[in-house]
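Lecture notes, unit on protein representations.

Consider one protein chain, 226 amino acids long.
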Amino acid sequence: MVPVDASISFDRPTLPVPQLAQVRDILAHLQGPIISTAISRAALPVEEELYDNDGKRLLSFIHTLETRHPERFVYGSLEYPFTLPDVAPDRTTPSKLYPGGTFHQDTFTPNPNLTTFYRESLLPLLESANQATGGMSVYYHLTNRTTVPDRTAKFTLDAQLLAQLSHRASIGKLVAESKYAADVTKYTSLIQSQDTEAIRALVTNRTQEQVVLSSAANASAALAAA
């Protein structure tokens, strides 16, 4: 057994607050994989009954992936910066209720709202895209059947897309964190007064959101036509 040096500290690391430009660069790199997976999923028909009972069958499939291949797939646990080991959740103190620069060290759990968004908003769009291109599976040639279920392929792409969206959503808090760090006094006052609308307005950049949407639309059109 290797002796442990008592002088070595195992305290949690303090991660720097990323700048907006850095965060936007990370998000730009995520755009391609998300679009690619969405287009692949749109190549398969959507069977609505597969997502009954609040997506129970899909979540069971995801749980199986996490159990069998935890080193390759864990829905919702992708965090920035992606190469660090697990970091304990941030703890506030009476004298430091809102510690800046540590929000992104919090642990992350799957957001049920994301799964609901996927089932109720995104899947119908993917279904429309599939029907617009003929409504058949891209894998029909493997069995010489145009109605092959391809359920494993569907759930695999569903799981991949949800993981990517979860990753994208979790990085969104880095945007809020960097803006918070730039004006701690203003944000702290709004947090203490629980003025969620004012916080949302302060964090939101409509111009940047439109740039992202336009970029995603152009990339989607180019990839779909490739």
